[in-house]
Design brief:
Elements lengths: L1 E7 L11 H11 L4 E7 L11 E4 L4 H13 L1 H9 L3 E5 L1 H4 L4 E3 L5 E3 L6 E18 L4 E15 L7 E5 L9 E2 L1 E3 L2 E4 L10 H12 L9 H17 L4
Helix pairs in contact: 1-5
The structure holds glutamine (GLN).
Length: 239
């Protein structure tokens, strides 16, 4: 089977090697005999039909401002694609733009596409460092790195991606990080995220392909996860 990944704004939203997530998805798909095709989707581009998984990385306020209104023009097509079963991973600045809006430190409000039930307002102090989450819904942990000024507030009843074991997470207070709604996942975790959290890469691929995947030997990935988790724990509490 082929899996088609729509990579949104790869020339604008790609800090902390976020595009490394695509390489992990491609390799883990290949190891199960699936070809992964990457379709770049930039400003002015239409959202192609037949995308199985959308991906958008993180970026500074300036880059978010350069793409936000173009993303809104793609909003209806992205909502329709998700309703048809497409999966979606959004990281940090991309995650913020999947909500209703992101208000930056100057008070400028960037519109979002409302694919996730949340909104984000930047605070004075940046939230930076290693993070460790407990994802009860998967019985797993996620380890990564965060660097954001935005404080994300989930709507009442919205599902977080995980509970914060170490780090700031969505706002440094709620004790939760990210958001998930069906096959749509948003997170502040950079790193890139997927090399040290292979179970989550497989979750996205399984959602995109609609099949369960055979296990792989993830010894090296498990070590990378352990190192990242240990760094986060060493960091201790939040503030
Ligand atoms: N510019 C956003 C913020 O500061 C997102 C940052 C990022 O993607 N790392 O919160």
């Amino acid at each position: 089977m082929n899996v088609s990944v729509g990579h949104l704004y790869r020339d604008y939203l790609n800090i902390y090697a976020d595009r490394g997530n695509i390489a992990v998805l491609a390799e883990r798909a290949r190891l199960r005999g699936h070809d992964l095709e990457v379709v770049p989707i930039g400003p002015g581009d239409d959202v192609p039909d037949g995308i199985d998984l959308f991906y958008v990385g993180g970026g500074q306020d300036r880059e978010q401002a350069l793409v936000a209104r173009d993303l809104v023009r793609k909003g209806d097509a992205l909502h329709a694609a998700v309703e048809r079963g497409a999966a979606f991973l959004a990281v940090c600045g991309g995650y913020q733009l999947l909500g209703r809006f992101y208000r930056d430190r100057n008070g400028e409000e960037l519109p979002g596409i409302g694919l996730l039930p949340l909104q984000t307002i930047a605070g004075e102090r940046r939230m930076i460092g290693d993070v460790l989450l407990e994802c009860g819904w998967a019985g797993r942990t996620l380890a990564g790195f965060e660097n954001h000024a935005g404080r994300t507030e989930l709507d009442e009843g919205a599902e977080p991606l995980g509970r914060v074991l170490a780090g700031f997470g969505n706002d440094g207070r709620s004790g939760f990080e990210g958001c998930r709604l069906g096959r749509v996942y948003g997170t502040y975790l950079h790193g890139p995220l997927l090399p040290r959290n292979p179970w989550f890469a497989d979750r996205l691929l399984a959602d995109a392909l609609g099949v369960e995947l055979s296990p792989l030997d993830d010894e090296l990935e498990a070590q990378a996860h352990a190192v990242s988790a240990q760094r986060a724990r060493a960091r201790g509490g939040r503030y």
